[in-house]
Amino acid sequence: MSPPDFFIGWDRNSGRAQFRFLALVAAGFLALLAGIGLLDGQDAAPRGLFHLAPPPPPDAPIDAVTLRGRVALHPYPTLFVQPDATHPSLHSVLLSGDGKRGPSIDPALADGAMVSVTGLKLRRGTIDMLVVGEEVHPLPDPPIAAPAPVSLGRWRVAGEICDGKCQTGAMQPGQGLSHRACASLCLIGGVPPVFVTASPVAGASFLLLAGPDGRALADLRRLAALPVVLEGEIERRGDLLVFKVDLTQARVL
User: Fold this and answer.
1) Given CA atoms 160, 163, 164, 167 in this order, what sign does their dihedral have?
2) First vs last C-alpha separation in the chain
Protein backbone atom coordinates (compact mmCIF):
# COMPACT_ATOMS: atom_id res chain seq x y z
CA MET A 1 0.00 0.00 0.00
CA SER A 2 1.43 3.38 -0.96
CA PRO A 3 2.10 6.04 1.73
CA PRO A 4 -0.88 8.23 0.64
CA ASP A 5 -3.16 5.34 1.58
CA PHE A 6 -2.26 5.84 5.25
CA PHE A 7 -3.70 8.70 7.35
CA ILE A 8 -1.12 10.88 9.11
CA GLY A 9 -2.53 13.79 11.09
CA TRP A 10 0.15 16.30 10.10
CA ASP A 11 0.27 15.30 6.38
CA ARG A 12 -2.55 16.73 4.25
CA ASN A 13 -1.73 14.34 1.37
CA SER A 14 -2.12 11.17 3.44
CA GLY A 15 -5.23 8.98 3.60
CA ARG A 16 -6.64 9.90 0.17
CA ALA A 17 -7.90 6.35 -0.41
CA GLN A 18 -9.74 6.31 2.94
CA PHE A 19 -11.32 9.69 2.24
CA ARG A 20 -12.59 8.49 -1.14
CA PHE A 21 -14.03 5.34 0.45
CA LEU A 22 -15.80 7.29 3.22
CA ALA A 23 -17.21 9.74 0.68
CA LEU A 24 -18.72 6.86 -1.32
CA VAL A 25 -20.20 5.33 1.84
CA ALA A 26 -21.71 8.66 2.88
CA ALA A 27 -23.19 9.21 -0.59
CA GLY A 28 -24.74 5.74 -0.54
CA PHE A 29 -26.24 6.30 2.91
CA LEU A 30 -27.80 9.61 1.84
CA ALA A 31 -29.24 7.92 -1.24
CA LEU A 32 -30.78 5.25 1.00
CA LEU A 33 -32.38 7.91 3.20
CA ALA A 34 -33.76 9.70 0.15
CA GLY A 35 -35.20 6.44 -1.19
CA ILE A 36 -36.94 5.65 2.09
CA GLY A 37 -38.29 9.18 2.20
CA LEU A 38 -39.75 8.77 -1.31
CA LEU A 39 -41.40 5.50 -0.36
CA ASP A 40 -42.91 7.06 2.75
CA GLY A 41 -44.12 9.93 0.59
CA GLN A 42 -47.09 7.77 -0.40
CA ASP A 43 -48.50 8.32 3.11
CA ALA A 44 -50.49 11.38 4.07
CA ALA A 45 -47.67 12.39 6.43
CA PRO A 46 -44.15 11.39 5.21
CA ARG A 47 -42.17 10.02 8.10
CA GLY A 48 -38.72 9.18 6.73
CA LEU A 49 -36.32 6.85 8.52
CA PHE A 50 -36.31 8.55 11.91
CA HIS A 51 -39.96 8.92 12.87
CA LEU A 52 -40.98 10.81 16.00
CA ALA A 53 -44.54 10.59 17.25
CA PRO A 54 -46.40 13.85 16.59
CA PRO A 55 -46.95 16.05 19.65
CA PRO A 56 -50.50 16.32 21.03
CA PRO A 57 -52.61 19.14 19.61
CA PRO A 58 -52.16 22.46 21.45
CA ASP A 59 -55.76 22.40 22.66
CA ALA A 60 -55.46 18.89 24.19
CA PRO A 61 -57.40 18.91 27.49
CA ILE A 62 -55.44 18.78 30.75
CA ASP A 63 -57.25 17.53 33.82
CA ALA A 64 -56.84 20.09 36.62
CA VAL A 65 -57.93 19.53 40.19
CA THR A 66 -58.47 21.95 43.07
CA LEU A 67 -57.35 20.87 46.52
CA ARG A 68 -57.97 22.60 49.82
CA GLY A 69 -55.98 22.00 52.98
CA ARG A 70 -53.18 22.96 55.32
CA VAL A 71 -49.81 23.81 53.82
CA ALA A 72 -46.51 22.85 55.44
CA LEU A 73 -43.56 24.84 54.12
CA HIS A 74 -40.81 22.60 55.52
CA PRO A 75 -38.90 20.69 54.42
CA TYR A 76 -40.66 21.37 51.10
CA PRO A 77 -44.12 22.81 50.36
CA THR A 78 -46.64 20.07 51.08
CA LEU A 79 -50.44 20.22 51.22
CA PHE A 80 -52.28 18.15 53.84
CA VAL A 81 -55.93 17.57 52.98
CA GLN A 82 -58.68 16.19 55.18
CA PRO A 83 -59.06 12.40 55.44
CA ASP A 84 -61.50 10.65 53.11
CA ALA A 85 -62.49 7.11 52.19
CA THR A 86 -59.31 6.63 50.14
CA HIS A 87 -56.97 8.22 52.68
CA PRO A 88 -58.05 7.57 56.28
CA SER A 89 -55.39 9.89 57.70
CA LEU A 90 -54.34 13.37 56.63
CA HIS A 91 -53.30 12.95 53.01
CA SER A 92 -50.08 14.63 51.84
CA VAL A 93 -49.62 16.14 48.38
CA LEU A 94 -46.23 17.58 47.41
CA LEU A 95 -46.35 20.93 45.58
CA SER A 96 -44.30 21.93 42.55
CA GLY A 97 -44.35 24.78 40.05
CA ASP A 98 -44.34 24.83 36.28
CA GLY A 99 -41.11 23.82 34.61
CA LYS A 100 -38.10 22.86 36.69
CA ARG A 101 -38.88 24.81 39.81
CA GLY A 102 -40.78 24.68 43.05
CA PRO A 103 -44.12 26.39 43.61
CA SER A 104 -44.43 30.17 43.81
CA ILE A 105 -45.32 31.03 47.40
CA ASP A 106 -46.94 34.26 48.62
CA PRO A 107 -44.49 35.90 51.09
CA ALA A 108 -47.44 36.36 53.47
CA LEU A 109 -48.10 32.61 53.54
CA ALA A 110 -47.29 31.20 56.98
CA ASP A 111 -46.47 27.61 57.77
CA GLY A 112 -49.76 25.86 58.58
CA ALA A 113 -52.03 28.29 56.72
CA MET A 114 -55.09 27.06 54.84
CA VAL A 115 -54.85 27.31 51.05
CA SER A 116 -56.80 26.36 47.96
CA VAL A 117 -54.60 25.33 45.02
CA THR A 118 -55.42 24.25 41.48
CA GLY A 119 -53.07 22.32 39.26
CA LEU A 120 -52.19 19.14 37.42
CA LYS A 121 -52.09 16.14 39.74
CA LEU A 122 -49.36 13.53 39.33
CA ARG A 123 -49.13 10.24 41.16
CA ARG A 124 -46.78 7.30 41.40
CA GLY A 125 -46.73 4.75 44.18
CA THR A 126 -47.40 6.41 47.51
CA ILE A 127 -46.42 9.94 46.42
CA ASP A 128 -48.90 12.51 45.07
CA MET A 129 -47.81 15.84 43.58
CA LEU A 130 -49.74 18.88 42.40
CA VAL A 131 -48.11 21.06 39.73
CA VAL A 132 -49.32 24.59 40.50
CA GLY A 133 -48.96 27.35 37.92
CA GLU A 134 -50.08 30.30 40.09
CA GLU A 135 -48.83 31.77 43.34
CA VAL A 136 -50.12 30.02 46.46
CA HIS A 137 -52.06 32.46 48.72
CA PRO A 138 -53.44 31.94 52.24
CA LEU A 139 -57.16 31.62 52.97
CA PRO A 140 -58.91 33.19 55.98
CA ASP A 141 -60.29 29.77 57.00
CA PRO A 142 -59.26 28.30 60.35
CA PRO A 143 -56.52 25.68 59.85
CA ILE A 144 -57.04 21.97 60.21
CA ALA A 145 -54.96 20.17 62.81
CA ALA A 146 -51.33 19.64 61.87
CA PRO A 147 -50.19 16.01 61.61
CA ALA A 148 -48.02 15.27 64.63
CA PRO A 149 -44.67 13.80 63.56
CA VAL A 150 -44.17 10.22 64.72
CA SER A 151 -40.59 8.93 64.77
CA LEU A 152 -40.05 5.51 63.19
CA GLY A 153 -36.47 5.35 64.43
CA ARG A 154 -33.15 5.48 62.63
CA TRP A 155 -32.77 3.71 59.30
CA ARG A 156 -30.07 2.87 56.77
CA VAL A 157 -31.73 2.69 53.35
CA ALA A 158 -30.48 2.01 49.81
CA GLY A 159 -32.10 3.75 46.88
CA GLU A 160 -31.92 6.69 44.48
CA ILE A 161 -32.42 10.42 44.92
CA CYS A 162 -34.91 11.74 42.35
CA ASP A 163 -36.86 14.93 41.84
CA GLY A 164 -40.45 14.37 42.89
CA LYS A 165 -41.97 15.93 39.80
CA CYS A 166 -40.41 13.75 37.12
CA GLN A 167 -40.58 10.68 39.34
CA THR A 168 -44.34 11.03 39.75
CA GLY A 169 -44.89 11.05 36.00
CA ALA A 170 -43.89 14.40 34.47
CA MET A 171 -40.97 12.77 32.64
CA GLN A 172 -40.25 9.26 31.37
CA PRO A 173 -37.90 7.91 32.51
CA GLY A 174 -38.06 9.78 35.79
CA GLN A 175 -35.04 8.09 37.33
CA GLY A 176 -31.71 6.51 36.44
CA LEU A 177 -28.52 7.90 34.90
CA SER A 178 -30.35 8.91 31.71
CA HIS A 179 -32.36 11.33 33.85
CA ARG A 180 -29.44 12.68 35.92
CA ALA A 181 -29.09 16.08 34.18
CA CYS A 182 -32.85 16.71 34.23
CA ALA A 183 -33.13 15.69 37.90
CA SER A 184 -30.25 18.00 38.85
CA LEU A 185 -31.95 21.00 37.21
CA CYS A 186 -35.27 20.23 38.91
CA LEU A 187 -33.62 19.88 42.31
CA ILE A 188 -31.72 23.17 41.84
CA GLY A 189 -35.05 24.84 40.99
CA GLY A 190 -36.67 23.72 44.23
CA VAL A 191 -38.69 20.68 43.16
CA PRO A 192 -39.11 18.44 46.24
CA PRO A 193 -36.57 15.57 46.32
CA VAL A 194 -37.79 12.05 46.94
CA PHE A 195 -35.78 8.98 47.81
CA VAL A 196 -36.88 5.96 45.80
CA THR A 197 -36.03 3.00 48.03
CA ALA A 198 -34.69 -0.34 46.84
CA SER A 199 -37.12 -2.07 49.23
CA PRO A 200 -40.30 -0.70 50.87
CA VAL A 201 -39.86 1.12 54.18
CA ALA A 202 -42.87 1.03 56.51
CA GLY A 203 -45.06 0.29 53.49
CA ALA A 204 -43.68 3.12 51.33
CA SER A 205 -41.24 3.07 48.41
CA PHE A 206 -40.85 6.86 48.29
CA LEU A 207 -39.55 9.07 51.10
CA LEU A 208 -39.46 12.87 51.13
CA LEU A 209 -35.89 13.96 51.89
CA ALA A 210 -34.92 16.55 54.49
CA GLY A 211 -31.83 17.61 56.40
CA PRO A 212 -31.15 16.44 59.98
CA ASP A 213 -32.97 19.57 61.25
CA GLY A 214 -36.08 18.79 59.16
CA ARG A 215 -35.40 21.61 56.71
CA ALA A 216 -34.65 21.56 53.00
CA LEU A 217 -31.34 20.07 51.86
CA ALA A 218 -28.74 22.44 50.44
CA ASP A 219 -27.39 20.61 47.37
CA LEU A 220 -28.33 17.20 46.01
CA ARG A 221 -26.82 17.45 42.53
CA ARG A 222 -23.73 15.31 43.17
CA LEU A 223 -25.88 12.40 44.37
CA ALA A 224 -28.89 12.70 42.05
CA ALA A 225 -29.79 9.59 40.05
CA LEU A 226 -27.01 7.50 41.62
CA PRO A 227 -27.50 4.33 43.69
CA VAL A 228 -26.69 5.43 47.24
CA VAL A 229 -27.10 4.39 50.85
CA LEU A 230 -28.46 7.07 53.22
CA GLU A 231 -28.82 6.95 56.96
CA GLY A 232 -31.06 9.01 59.24
CA GLU A 233 -34.32 9.29 61.12
CA ILE A 234 -37.65 8.59 59.42
CA GLU A 235 -40.73 10.50 60.58
CA ARG A 236 -44.35 9.86 59.70
CA ARG A 237 -46.43 13.00 59.11
CA GLY A 238 -49.96 11.98 58.25
CA ASP A 239 -49.44 9.49 55.43
CA LEU A 240 -46.09 11.06 54.42
CA LEU A 241 -42.71 9.61 55.40
CA VAL A 242 -39.87 12.14 55.79
CA PHE A 243 -36.28 10.86 55.75
CA LYS A 244 -33.98 13.26 57.65
CA VAL A 245 -30.47 12.54 56.42
CA ASP A 246 -26.92 13.89 56.64
CA LEU A 247 -25.62 13.85 53.07
CA THR A 248 -21.99 13.93 54.21
CA GLN A 249 -22.54 10.34 55.37
CA ALA A 250 -24.02 9.22 52.03
CA ARG A 251 -22.30 6.26 50.36
CA VAL A 252 -22.47 5.74 46.60
CA LEU A 253 -22.84 2.08 45.66
Assistant:
1) negative
2) 51
Residue-wise over 132-153: b if at least 16 C-beta within 10 A, else e? beeebebeeeebbeebeeeeee
Tell me the residue type at 51: H
Q: How many CB atoms sit inside 10 A of residue 99's CB?
A: 12
Q: Is 218 left (phi over 0), alpha (psi -120 to 50) or beta?
A: alpha
Please state whether 153 falls in left (phi above 0), alpha (psi between -120 and 50) or beta: left
Give yes or no for a contact between 247 and 209, defined as CB atoms under 8 angstroms apart.
Answer: no
Q: How confident is the model at residue 226 (pLDDT cuts 50, 70, 90)?
A: confident
C-alpha distances in angstroms, 136 versus 42, 79, 107, 203, 244? 52, 11, 9, 31, 26
Distance (Å, whole) CA 109 – CA 135 = 10
Q: Rounded to 5 degrees, what angle do the CA atoms 35, 37, 43 make?
A: 125
pLDDT for 12-49, tens place per residue? Answer: 555 566 667 667 767 776 666 566 444 444 443 343 33
Cα–Cα distance for residue pair 241/237, rounded to 1 Å: 6
Spatial contact of 74 and 87, defined as CB atoms under 8 Å apart: no
CA distance 172 to 28: 36
Tell me how far CA of residue 175 lies from CA of 3, 161, 165, in angstroms.
51, 8, 11
Q: How far apart are CA 17 and CA 212, in angstroms?
A: 65
